[in-house]
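Consider the tokenized backbone below.
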């Protein structure tokens, strides 16, 4: 959406080194495709339900989507309804902003057992992503173990520890709220392979965890090796203060706990069909076995290849330079498919600006202006003729209004529709 915004605000004309030297009549037209009938990617299916303020960015995206020349086309998937080759012919330029749609899996024995999952799948499930609605996690054990020390690990730990009453005030999927109500989980252990000062999570997210009023945050001094050397940055000093405060805390005997363990790696997941325990090995070689019914790998996300486009299978990105896809004129990338899965929502603003800047430079250099793209109407006609069912802006607004109205009845921001079939029925009437 940031890329669409940069494109739509960019006057058409001749640009030299970022300066508009002659303005052409007309405007840039942008079609934004999504494989889901609902837009906004991770804002809908990734941001934690208890972080409503982070979802306010959807308002920025709505403003972009309703600009002159911008059009949303949901429920159209590259590789299923249209090929990358066709898109390259239909448009002057194509920007892929497809993100990272898989979670990285643990490479240890037992990772395939029921009860072992990726944070990506769990997050998509509790956020009502239609492809994950049926794949509920095992919440019948008293302990869950989350591997990884990024912000996603903290999100997952908070949500698994959420009371059903708190969950009911969010836009969490109803199936997840019901599962949390029946959940036996009383302790979530977050396991980091490095020390607390090196942990990838950010200080505000750690502070948020420490401020939870119905969850004890437990740390074990022996598993909590803090670095004695002075902090060299403000964030480092803040981290040290938070860690000292955590170490000094006494558990309050609350019914739910989140335990932070550092300097440990998973060595195997134990169980016959279902996970029953996990073995962790410390950096000093000491092993610990924790009983657990759920193991969540929050060790990062991974992008998947798009047929017809190059893909670096190690870095899990489409290889590019300043947003230009290697070897393909007129094809660009932005976001996690370009940079890899790191950075917050706002990071994508400058990332998209760089890509769109490169695109306009290429227009000026005559690299992509010679094409004869399809008109807006021809694109839709071609898609519908081959059996696709695009969901357009007003149809998404119908879904949106329905979800908000359903949510209002129970004091929630929205009640998400989580079945693709139902979403399409709402969209198409
Ligand atoms: P991340 O920040 O890259 O963290 C991944 C974690 O997994 C790191 O602690 C990493 O350890 C660990 N790890 C990687 N491979 C591992 C392995 N094989 N075994 C054990 N641990 C392993 O990724 P993320 O948490 O998925 O977050 C992705 C991005 O989204 C981040 O930029 C994050 O800040 C952002 N995000 C932000 C928010 C928010 O603002 N509230 C919420 C969610 C996500 P090392 O550090 O040792 O490599």
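A designed sequence for it:
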């Amino acid at each position: 959406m940031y890329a669409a915004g940069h494109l739509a605000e960019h006057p058409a004309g001749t640009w030299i080194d970022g300066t508009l030297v002659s303005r052409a009549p007309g405007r840039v037209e942008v079609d934004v495709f999504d494989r889901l009938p609902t837009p906004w990617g991770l804002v809908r299916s990734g941001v934690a339900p208890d972080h409503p303020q982070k979802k306010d960015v959807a308002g920025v995206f709505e403003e972009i989507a309703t600009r002159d020349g911008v059009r949303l086309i949901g429920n159209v998937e590259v590789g299923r309804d249209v090929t990358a080759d066709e898109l390259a012919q239909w448009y002057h330029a194509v920007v892929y902003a497809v993100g990272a749609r898989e979670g990285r899996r643990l490479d240890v024995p037992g990772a395939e057992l029921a009860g072992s999952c990726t944070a990506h799948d769990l997050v998509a499930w509790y956020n009502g992503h239609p492809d994950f609605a049926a794949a509920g996690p095992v919440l019948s054990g008293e302990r869950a173990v989350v591997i990884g020390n990024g912000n996603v690990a903290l999100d997952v730990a908070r949500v698994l520890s959420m009371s059903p009453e708190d969950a009911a005030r969010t836009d969490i999927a109803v199936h997840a709220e019901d599962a949390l109500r029946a959940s036996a989980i009383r302790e979530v252990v977050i396991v980091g392979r490095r020390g607390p000062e090196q942990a990838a999570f950010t200080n505000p997210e750690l502070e948020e965890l420490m401020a939870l009023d119905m969850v004890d945050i437990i740390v074990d001094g022996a598993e909590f090796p803090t670095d004695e050397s002075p902090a060299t940055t403000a964030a480092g000093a803040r981290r040290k203060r938070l860690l000292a405060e955590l170490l000094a805390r006494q558990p309050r005997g609350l019914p739910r706990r989140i335990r932070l363990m550092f300097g440990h790696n998973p060595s195997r997941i134990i169980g016959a069909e279902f996970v029953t325990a996990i073995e962790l090995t410390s950096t000093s070689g000491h092993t610990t076995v924790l009983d657990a019914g759920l193991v969540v790998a929050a060790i990062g996300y991974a992008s998947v290849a798009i047929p017809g486009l190059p893909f670096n299978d190690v870095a899990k990105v489409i290889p590019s330079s300043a947003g230009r896809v290697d070897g393909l004129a007129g094809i660009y990338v932005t976001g996690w498919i370009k940079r890899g899965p790191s950075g917050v929502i706002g990071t994508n603003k400058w990332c998209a600006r760089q890509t769109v800047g490169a695109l306009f430079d290429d227009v000026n250099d005559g690299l992509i202006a010679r094409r004869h793209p399809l008109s807006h109407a021809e694109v839709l006609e071609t898609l519908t003729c081959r059996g696709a069912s695009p969901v357009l802006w007003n149809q998404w607004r119908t879904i949106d209004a329905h979800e908000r109205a359903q949510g209002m009845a129970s004091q929630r921001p929205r009640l998400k529709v989580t079945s693709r079939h139902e979403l399409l029925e709402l969209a198409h009437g």
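The CA atoms of residues 81 and 388 lie 6 Å apart.
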